[in-house]
Amino acid sequence: MPLPPRPFYSPFEIATRWECDVADIIDWAVAGHLHILVLIPPCTIGGRVFSDAVEVAPSDIHLLLRRFDRSSGKVRIMRMRYPGEPEWTVAVEGDKGVMIGQLDLLIAADDVVAFEGRYVGSARGNSSVGSGRYDWDGCMAAMLIHARDYGLPANQAELIGVIQDWFIGHSPKGEAPDESTIRKRLNPIWQRIRDAA
After folding, report:
1. Which of 89, 123, 157 is the last residue before a domain boundary?
2. Which candidate in 22, 23, 53, 97 could, as Cys together with 15 as Cys, close a disulfide (CB 3.0–4.6 Å)?
3. Are residues 13 and 54 in the same domain?
4. Does 105 share its domain with 33?
5. Which residue in 150, 156, 115 sits closest to 15, CA to CA?
């Protein structure tokens, strides 16, 4: 007997499927094309008890999936609604809200199918950001921020370690490109840095 279809996908799965950056998923949610859900235990927000699949506002979780310098931590959600409801229920004094992280975020399969029916031709490959398996553009932006805040690493091997740590901390499964792949991308940049020194 075949299994039932999956009811949810993570934004990371969808970004891979559509060959875009996960930040694009959040941007499309902000524009109203997708709805971001989380599965929660019962909690009280604004005098209502919420549980199971609830929708969260994309702007409330943007920090987790922004294009550059994503947070690997959690954010406190203080407003939510059930899918299909027109208005948000907002926390009142005394409400604790719900802490959620990147891996808690979901998109309903029906939402994915509807989006693909409207935009799949233009969604695939319409962004160079994060193309392929790894978010190289996000990594390079993070390396610029790292260089600004801490200076350049003493050698290329140290920089490769910093890059691998960034990928591990910013991928859903803690994956990173191997050292030789990073070195191939880094060599031209590192050579220019050395030539300019």
Report:
1. 123
2. 22
3. yes
4. yes
5. 115
- Token readout for 195 is 């030539």
Q: Write out the two tokens for 114.
A: 């509807």
Q: Residues 98, 16: one domain?
A: yes
- The set of residues, in sequence order, having a beta carbon less than 8 Å from that of 134 and lying 6+ positions away, is 167, 171, 175, 176, 177
State whether 85 and 180 are in the same domain: no
Q: Which alpha helices (DSSP H) does the chain contain, by range?
A: 11-18, 22-30, 58-65, 109-123, 136-150, 156-170, 179-196
Tokens at 190, concatenated: 């590192």
| Per-residue pLDDT, 45 | 92
Looking up tokens 């409801």 gives: 85
Dig out the tokens for 22 from the structure. Answer: 């996960």
Answer yes or no: is pLDDT of 54 > 70: yes
Q: Are 62 and 89 found together in one domain?
A: yes
Q: Which of 65-74, 102-111, 162-171 has the lowest mean pLDDT?
A: 65-74
Handedness of CA 182, 188, 189, 191 (dihedral sign): positive
Q: Tell me, yes or no, whether 106 and 26 share the same domain.
A: yes
Q: How many angstroms separate the most distant Cα atoms in the chain?
A: 66
